[in-house]
Amino acid sequence: MNNVNEGWRSVRALMLLTGLALCASAFAADPTPAAAGAVATPDAAVAAAPESAPDATADNGAAPVRFLVMANQESPLSSVVAGRVSQVNVELGDTVKAGKLLVTLDCSELKARRDAADAEYSAAQIKYEAKAKLQGLHSAGALEVGLAAADVNRTRSQIKIFEAQLAQCRFTAPFDGRVARIYVKEGQGVGAGAQVIDLVSNGTRKARLNVPSGWTTWLAPGAQLDAVVGETGKHYPMTVTHISSRVDAVSQTIEIEAEFGSDAQDVLPGMSGRATPVCPKAAAQCQSGTTNS
User: Fold this and answer.
1) Which of 61, 183, 187, 249 could disulfide-pair with 195, CB 3.0 to 4.6 Å?
2) Whole-angstrom Cα distance, residue 190 to residue 81?
3) What range defines the domain where residue 30 resides?
4) Can you tell me whether residue 136 is helix, strand or coil?
5) Which residues contact 111 (CB under 8 A, 6 or more apart)?
């Protein structure tokens, strides 16, 4: 019986060895795709792909600086006196000349007060003249004449006050420009301090930037910047005109102003973009990563 069991064990071992041999031969005859190079795995493709070019900004060093386009002159006109809008003479975007009447307020009440002050002045003037004549006849003292003269001056000053207030009922353009915003409509009541109209000049556009404080080692008025306005996608030359006298301690930046050239007529206030310094080749202190002239 023991001999029979040992025989079965030998047969099973022989069959197992035969199966392993067949598997090994089949594996050798059919190599894997990776070994034969037929299909590359994703990891292999990533490893074999050439490295992408480094980011231009990071490789160049100094990153472009954001800027905001501003008008050379900008005037938000507001009401000094309370009144009702009687006439609006312009529309949004209109081009106006300096001195043009933009908005008029109905200041009838102020006119009535001015007329009342005028009447008081006339009465004070008559009273003073009468006192002066009586003084010549020794019927009025110097004190009475002096008080009458002071009353004339007081009423005259009241007239000037009302005339100055009436002048604030007319809003005229302080410079040549364009209407950027109108806050009021005809018939609308406005109070003292209320916004009425925004006016921007037609002159050269300027930009305001906060640049790294390290630029102060070479940056000076007259330095050139290459600006790209986001809204137009165009490049424009800019010239640095003003540099702040203080560095912001938190952001380590300094505020500067730059002026666009005459070819930036399509650039409007409120647009924004990025600017990069244009460094002369001889400027050794100019940071790397800028455009060389």
Assistant:
1) 183
2) 8
3) 2-36
4) helix
5) 166
The reply to whether 46 falls in a domain is no
pLDDT, tens digit, 9 for 90 and up, residues 12-69: 655 666 555 555 554 444 544 444 444 444 444 333 333 433 333 333 345 789 999 9
In a domain, 42, yes or no: no
C-beta of residue 65 within 8 angstroms of C-beta of residue 207? no
Q: Please state, in angstroms and rounded to a whole number, the distance separating the CA atoms of residues 261 and 236.
A: 7
Distance from C-alpha of 92 to C-alpha of 71, rounded to nearest angstrom: 17
Task: Answer yes or no: is 286 within a domain.
Answer: yes
Distance of CA 255 to the CA centre of its chain: 13
Answer yes or no: is 55 within a domain: no
Number of H helices, E strands in the chain: 6, 15
CA distance 8 to 13: 9
What is the total count of domains within the chain? 4
pLDDT above 60: residue 208 = yes
**Cα–Cα distance for residue pair 9/112, rounded to 1 Å:** 130
Give the 3-state secondary structure of residue 238.
Answer: strand
What does the pLDDT look like over 132-155, one tens digit per residue?
888 777 777 888 888 888 999 999
Whether the full predicted model's pTM is greater than 0.85, yes or no, is no
